[in-house]
Design brief:
657 residues, alpha/beta, Rossmann fold, five-stranded parallel beta sheet, 24 helices, 18 strands, elongated
Length: 657
C-alpha cells in the first residue's frame, strides 16, 4: 500500500525553508464533488430549479466559455491568466444573457464554490505545523477568482488565519505559476530568496517542475486529483457518482487509490441499486406473480434484494434464475436452416468437432477427427448434416429447461418481471415466448433492463421491455456509446460462477467455468462486486456517506455514471481492467477476448484503410473506449486513436450534449 509522506515528514525534509507556499485548489481546499467542473453542474441544477429549463446545458457552456476566454487572452498576452469577469462575458455572448443574468451567474458561482468547499486534511496539517514552527505561510494559485473570493473560501474551510495579503492569485498579477511568471511577484512581495521557500501543490508542472527550475524546493501531492476525468463532461446527472467518487477521494487521501473499490462502490453500486429500485417500482404499480434476477447479470442485485428483505423491507421472495442466450435459443429451436445456423457458429470461429458437440448438446455423426480444427463453413455443414440429431437434442434441452423454470415458479400464472442488463432483449423475448406457450399464455414475462440499444426494437413486438438507463429510442450517438461499453458492463456486473450451458434431468443448472473468468473474478471482480453490494445497500437504506439516496437513482444519473466510467475512463481503470478477458462465445468456452484490445505490435504499419475494420472489432468485441484510451496513452499508437475520433466523433471523450 502506498502511503503519502506526512506533513511533518515533508517539512523535515526541507528544514532550510522559512516560507511555506501552498497551492490553493486540491491542496489547501477541495470540493464535495469529484472534479472542478462539477461545480458548474451544481450551478445548472440550481438554475433549472429556480429559473426553468432554459438553463439546461449551462455547465458545458460554462466550460466552453472559459476555453474561449483563455484563447482570446492568449492572442493578446500569452503570459497572463483570465478573470471570472472575462469568462462570464464570453458566457453571456454564448447564452445571450442580460446584464442582470450575468451578475446572477457570477454571484451564483461564488456562492456555489463556498457551498461545496472542504478543507484538505493534509493542507490543514501542514499549514498549522509550519505556522507552529514560525514559518511564513502564503497561498500561490493559478485561478480566475480574485484573492478576495479565495479568502472567503479559505475562511469557510476553517483557515481563519489567512489574510488577503497572504494570497497570490494569477488573475491579479499578470502571470501564472505554470509559466513561471507569478513567482517573481511572490519573491518580491515576500522579500525572500527562492532557496528559502518550500512550495507544496498538486500539479507536476505548475507546482513541481517550474518552481524547482527557479530554485524553489517543492513537494507534489496529487491525491486530490485522482478523481478527475474529462472536464467537459459536466451535467447535473453526473453529480451522484461525482459525490461518491469525491467521498472515496477523501477517504483514500493518505493511502493508495483502490480502483476496484471505487468502480464497485460507484458505478456498479448505482447500477445494482437501480436494478432493485426498478423491480420495486413495478411491485408498486401492479400485481406481480414473480420477480426473477437473471444469472449472471442479476447476481449482485439478488443479494441486495435478499438483504433488504432480511432488514424488514416488504419485498416478495425473488428467484435467481439461470438462463443464457445459447440455452434459450437452442431450447426454442424447431428447425435448422442456412439462415439460423450462424447462431451456432460465428463467421470467424475455428472449432473442433468435440467443442461443436458440446455446443449443440449431442454427439455428431462425423468422419472427422474430433480434435482437429475446423473452420466455420465446415462446422455449419456438419451441424446441418446432423439436423435430426441436433433437433432431438434441443427438444430434450427444452424439457430440462422447462423443468428448471417450473421449479423457479416462472411458469406460475400471472405477470413476471425478469431483471437483466440488456441489451437487445432477445434472450428474454425468447424466454417469454417459450414460457407463454408452455403455460398456455397464463404466464407473462416483462423485461426490466438496465439498457437497450437499437436492435431491441423488434423484440418489443414480442415482449414488454423497459430500459432503465437507456433505450433504443435514444440518439444514434448514445446507442453507439452504449454498444461500446456493453462488454465492460457485462464484465463488471457479474457472478462468481460461469454461464449456464445446460440442465440436469431434475432441472439443476450446469454452469461452464472458464479459467480467464475465474482468474478475473479473483483478481478484480470479487472486490468490485463486494463494494457494489455494500454501496447499493447504503444508497437504498439512506446511509451512504456521500449523502446519496434513492432519489438520486434516475435514468439520467445511471446513464451518466455508465458514461463517466465507460466512455471517459481514467488511466487507473484501464490498467486494472486490462487484466480481464471476457468470454462471449455461444458455448461460453475458450479464452475469450481481452476487455482492453491489445495495441498492435507495429502501430506504424497500420494504415488508414485498416481503421474501419479495427473500429468494428473494438466496438463489437472489446470495451471500445477503454481500448481507444489505451491506444491514446501509447505514444506510438496515439495517432490511431486520434484518427478513430475523427472518423467516429461519438467515440471522442465528450459524451454530454
Amino acid at each position: 500500500m502506498t502511503v503519502q509522506l506526512t506533513a511533518e515528514q515533508v517539512l523535515d525534509e526541507h528544514s532550510q525553508a522559512s516560507v511555506l507556499s501552498v497551492d490553493f485548489f486540491d491542496t489547501l481546499i477541495t470540493r464535495s464533488v469529484a472534479q472542478p467542473t462539477h461545480v458548474f453542474a451544481v450551478m445548472e441544477q440550481n438554475l433549472i430549479s429556480s429559473h426553468g429549463d432554459s438553463w439546461r446545458g449551462f455547465a458545458v457552456a460554462r466550460v466552453e466559455a472559459e476555453q474561449r476566454a483563455r484563447q482570446l487572452a492568449e492572442q493578446v498576452d500569452d503570459q497572463r491568466d483570465v478573470s471570472l469577469d472575462e469568462i462570464v462575458y464570453q458566457l453571456a455572448q454564448q447564452l445571450v444573457l442580460s446584464r442582470s443574468d450575468s451578475d446572477m451567474v457570477m454571484t451564483l458561482e461564488r456562492e456555489t464554490e463556498l457551498q461545496l468547499v472542504q478543507a484538505v486534511p493534509f493542507g490543514v496539517e501542514i499549514t498549522e505545523l509550519a505556522r507552529a514552527r514560525g514559518m511564513r505561510v502564503v497561498v500561490v494559485s493559478d485561478n480566475y477568482m480574485p484573492a478576495t473570493h479565495l479568502l472567503q473560501m479559505a475562511h469557510r474551510a476553517g483557515y481563519s488565519w489567512i489574510t488577503k495579503a497572504d494570497i497570490f492569485v494569477s488573475c491579479e498579477h499578470g502571470g501564472m505559476k505554470h509559466n513561471g511568471m507569478l513567482w517573481p511577484v511572490v519573491l518580491s512581495a515576500l522579500n525572500s530568496l527562492a532557496g528559502s521557500i518550500l512550495h507544496v501543490g498538486d500539479d507536476a508542472r505548475a507546482d513541481g517542475e517550474v518552481p524547482k527550475s527557479l530554485g524553489i524546493a517543492t513537494h507534489v501531492r496529487d491525491t486530490m486529483r485522482r478523481s478527475h476525468r474529462d472536464m467537459i463532461n459536466t451535467t447535473p446527472a453526473v453529480l451522484p457518482l461525482s459525490r461518491i467518487e469525491a467521498e472515496y477521494r477523501n477517504a483514500m487521501d493518505e493511502t493508495r487509490w483502490d480502483v476496484g473499490e471505487v468502480i464497485g462502490g460507484g458505478l456498479v453500486a448505482m447500477i445494482v441499486a437501480a436494478q432493485v429500485l426498478d423491480a420495486h417500482f413495478v411491485l408498486g404499480k401492479r400485481s406481480v406473480a414473480g420477480v426473477h434476477f437473471a444469472a449472471r447479470d442479476g447476481y449482485l442485485a439478488h443479494q441486495v434484494w435478499n438483504t433488504l428483505r432480511s432488514r424488514g423491507w416488504e419485498l416478495p421472495v425473488a428467484t435467481y434464475t439461470a438462463f443464457s442466450r445459447s440455452v434459450v435459443w437452442r431450447a426454442w429451436l424447431s428447425e435448422l436452416t442456412r439462415e439460423n445456423i450462424g447462431r451456432f457458429v460465428g463467421d470467424d470461429e475455428v472449432l473442433t468437432v468435440s467443442r461443436l458437440e458440446r455446443r449443440v448438446g449431442c454427439a455428431l455423426d462425423s468422419p472427422l477427427d474430433r480434435e482437429m480444427p475446423i473452420d466455420a463453413s465446415v462446422a455449419r455443414d456438419l451441424v446441418l448434416d446432423n439436423t435430426d440429431i441436433v433437433l432431438s437434442a434441443t427438444n430434450s434441452l427444452r424439457t430440462r429447461l422447462l423443468t428448471y423454470l417450473r421449479s423457479h415458479e416462472v411458469l406460475m400464472s400471472g405477470h413476471h418481471i425478469v431483471v437483466d442488463l440488456g441489451w437487445t432483449g432477445s434472450t428474454i423475448a425468447d424466454l417469454a415466448d417459450l414460457v407463454s406457450v408452455e403455460s398456455q399464455n397464463q404466464s407473462v414475462i416483462e423485461g426490466r433492463l438496465t439498457g437497450l440499444y437499437w436492435d431491441a426494437t423488434p423484440q418489443r413486438m414480442r415482449i414488454a421491455m423497459h430500459g432503465f438507463a437507456m433505450d433504443e429510442f435514444g440518439s444514434t450517438d448514445d446507442n453507439v456509446r452504449l454498444l461500446g461499453v456493453i462488454k465492460l458492463l457485462e464484465a463488471l456486473v457479474t457472478a462468481p460462477h460461469g454461464s449456464v450451458v445446460d440442465y440436469e434431468d431434475d432441472g439443476t443448472p450446469i454452469f461452464v467455468e472458464t479459467v480467464p473468468e475465474l482468474q478475473a473474478y479473483e483478481a478484480v471482480m470479487r472486490q468490485v462486486g463486494d463494494a457494489a453490494v455494500r454501496g447499493a445497500l447504503a444508497i437504498l437504506d439512506g446511509t451512504h456517506p456521500s449523502g446519496m439516496t434513492t432519489a438520486d437513482i434516475t435514468k439520467e444519473s445511471i446513464w451518466a455514471a455508465i458514461m463517466q466510467v465507460g466512455h471517459s475512463p481514467r488511466t487507473d481503470e484501464i490498467d486494472l481492467l486490462s487484466q480481464v478477458n471476457h468470454v462471449t462465445s455461444i458455448d461460453h468456452e475458450g479464452n475469450g477476448r481481452p476487455l482492453i484490445a491489445v495495441t498492435p505490435d507495429e502501430p506504424a504499419k497500420v494504415t488508414l484503410e485498416d481503421l474501419p475494420g479495427m473500429y468494428d472489432t473494438l466496438m463489437h468485441r472489446h470495451w471500445m473506449q477503454g481500448s481507444l484510451r489505451a491506444l491514446e496513452n501509447n505514444v506510438d499508437s496515439r495517432w490511431i486513436a486520434d484518427e478513430m475520433y475523427k472518423l467516429n466523433p461519438m467515440t471522442s471523450p465528450r459524451w454530454v450534449p
